[in-house]
Write a structure and sequence with these properties.
Layout (H helix, E strand, L loop, with lengths): L15 H6 L4 H12 L7 E6 L5 H14 L10 E2 L12 H18 L5 E6 H10 L7 H10 L4 E3 L3 E5 L17 H7 L11 H10 L7 H8 L3 H17 L6 H12 L2 H4 L9 H9 L8 H9 L18 H12 L2 H6 L11 H14 L14 H14 L8 H26 L7 E3 L9 E6 L4 E2 L1 H10 L6 E6 L7 E5 L1 H11 L6 H6 L1 H8 L10 E6 L4 E7 L5 E5 L3
Parallel strand pairs: 1-3, 1-5, 2-3
Antiparallel strand pairs: 4-5, 6-7, 7-11, 8-9, 9-10, 11-12, 12-13
């Protein structure tokens, strides 16, 4: 589940599992309006773009099925190109098939009549087809429409409409509602206690038929996943992973994550395939259960893995706080307490004390217990500020919002701006208590430094919003700063990792070489620090003791004034 090709259906998808897992969104309303509600034979074209797994084909498939149910017979399968990578014949390449489809679409657009048509095309494939294969000039109108949709969710031309799923909101980022939305709705589809879940009947059957019964880890995981608090926290963790790691999240990847959480690879690998209940039969026969097979640990095998490395931001067992450390010492001194907390856990006696402690911390966090003591980055005030500022700059301003909520979001953006300003000044090397800072494009030696007066920059809200909305990298926002007395603007990309670094810099931390190499945003800021100074009007040169050696100031009639030490 979640693998490439596993979720792509045909023109009429008859797969009951896919249908059961499907969650309708406002994108469905847009596609349904085009092919059903407002359908006329005007030859218009709908293009759905995005990345693999975004649900492009699923949108077209459902709309086509609804059109058939409504008796729109003029719309046929040849008018809906479900997969732009596919070819209609073995002797044809994908670009030949796609060219034929676009030839028909352009003809209908020019004539203003004929059935409407739709195509699902990956953005990378679109670039290959139009630019590398030289089709841009032939289908200029289509390419311009796709190009116009890159920075936004939709782009509507007279006869061509483009829907870019890369800009679809998968979850809300407002701090009080973080993780809600499409992501949470997909997560809830896996609640096997809900009769509406596609897993309900199978779960009821397996609970009765499984030879391992209560000792089956899969049943244990599915049973714990029926807890609303557990599902809500898993949804928030998946959302936080996407924002903190700047990793792209879409329906296919969500399904893959959830499948791996409930049926982790270590558990799947022991299944005896010749049995009616493969997992249960294996457990009954061999009894090889490890802590990694349990939902409390499998969640964090997914959540805290980033390119094979672990940051620890989202793993409660990786946090180091006084309250947690004291609690761990108590558990280590009295292990029976852990056995009570993990009472219903299968074969817990086989776990080491370290595994029990780690599992307990993660279990209590996911169940929402001891939240004041067991925390992750989601509970940090820094993360709340980041979410608030991100929502403030990225939200749809056409939608109404409660004035108090708007004020709270704005305060988060103000806090971020203050942190950014303090970090820039601290990073530059603020000179004692004065308003002079060192600027980096001077010739730096151990004997003297170049200083200029700090030019207090202010963020341009509208430009910051425009850049943030155009950004497709999850969890990256933009502050467009405008320094005083300078006709320029400096766009600053801010990710959560960079925001954490800025918080530390504002507290006195000095970034090292590794910090500078880690982020393009950090390198960009470092290269433009001098633009936040008034060096065009005044420069001071000081020695390593901070004593002024020379000052240069702008004088009358474009002249300069130079003053040396003692003058």
């Amino acid at each position: 589940m979640g693998e490439a090709g596993a979720i792509v259906g045909g023109h009429i998808d008859r797969n009951s599992l896919r249908q059961g897992l499907y969650v309708s969104t406002k994108e469905d309303d847009l596609v349904k309006s085009f092919f059903v509600d407002d359908y006329i034979e005007d030859g218009k074209l709908l293009i759905i773009t995005g990345s693999a797994g975004d649900g492009k084909s699923a949108l077209l498939s459902r709309a086509y099925r609804l059109a058939q149910e409504e008796g729109i017979d003029s719309l046929t399968e040849t008018d809906i190109h479900m997969d732009a990578t596919a070819s209609t014949q073995k002797t044809k390449t994908y670009d030949e098939t796609l060219s034929e489809f676009f030839d028909t679409a352009i003809q209908r657009i020019n004539e203003g009549e004929g059935p409407r048509s739709g195509v699902a095309i990956n953005l990378g494939l679109a670039i290959d087809f139009f630019e590398r294969k030289g089709k841009k000039e032939k289908y200029q109108e289509i390419w311009d429409a796709i190009e116009g949709a890159k920075p936004q969710r939709t782009n509507e031309k007279v006869s061509i409409r483009v829907l870019n799923l890369s800009h679809r909101q998968l979850f809300r980022t407002q701090p009080d509602h973080f993780g809600e939305g499409l992501l949470r709705e997909i997560v809830d589809k896996f609640d096997a206690s809900d009769p509406e879940s596609p897993f309900y009947e199978a779960f009821q059957f397996e609970k009765e038929e499984c030879p391992a019964h209560g000792d089956c880890p899969l049943h244990y995981n599915m049973e714990r996943f029926t807890d609303d608090e557990v599902r809500a926290n898993i949804a928030r963790l998946l959302a936080a992973k996407s924002l903190i790691e700047n990793s792209y999240l879409n329906p296919r990847r969500i399904l893959d994550y959830l499948a791996s959480i409930l049926l982790p690879p270590t558990l799947e690998s022991i299944a005896k395939e010749d049995s009616a209940c493969p997992i249960g039969r294996s457990i009954e026969t061999d009894g090889k259960i490890t802590s990694r097979m349990m939902i409390w640990n499998s969640v964090f095998q997914i959540i805290d893995d980033h390119d094979g490395e672990r940051s620890g931001h989202l793993d409660p067992s990786a946090q180091s706080e006084k309250e947690i450390d004291l609690r761990i010492l108590e558990w280590a001194a009295n292990p029976s307490t852990l056995d009570e907390i993990l009472e219903s856990h299968p074969t817990i006696a086989n776990f080491s004390i370290e595994e029990k402690i780690q599992t307990t911390l993660r279990k209590q966090y996911l169940e929402g217990k001891q939240r004041e003591q067991i925390r992750t980055a989601i509970e940090w005030s820094w993360f709340t500020d980041f979410l608030g500022a991100y929502t403030y700059l990225n939200r749809d301003t056409s939608e109404e919002i409660d004035p108090q909520v708007e004020k709270e979001l704005k305060n988060c953006a103000v806090n971020m701006n203050q942190t950014l300003t303090d970090a820039l000044k601290g990073w530059s090397g603020k000179h004692t208590n004065s308003n002079y800072i060192e600027f980096v494009d001077g010739i730096k030696t151990t004997d003297y430094r170049f200083l200029a007066q700090w030019s207090n920059p202010s963020p341009n809200r509208e430009k910051s919003r425009q850049r943030t909305k155009r950004e497709t990298t999850p969890g990256q926002l933009w502050f467009v700063l405008e320094p005083e007395q300078a006709n320029t603007e400096v766009p600053i990309p801010i990710s959560f990792e960079l925001y954490v670094l800025m918080k530390r810099i504002s507290m006195g931390y000095n970034p090292n070489v590794r910090d500078l190499e880690r982020s393009e945003g950090i390198r960009l800021i470092h290269s433009r620090l001098s633009e936040f100074t008034d060096k065009q009007n005044s420069v001071r040169i000081v020695n390593k003791n901070g004593e002024e050696l020379l000052s240069v100031e702008k004088g009358a009639f474009d002249g300069i004034k130079i003053r040396g030490k003692g003058q």
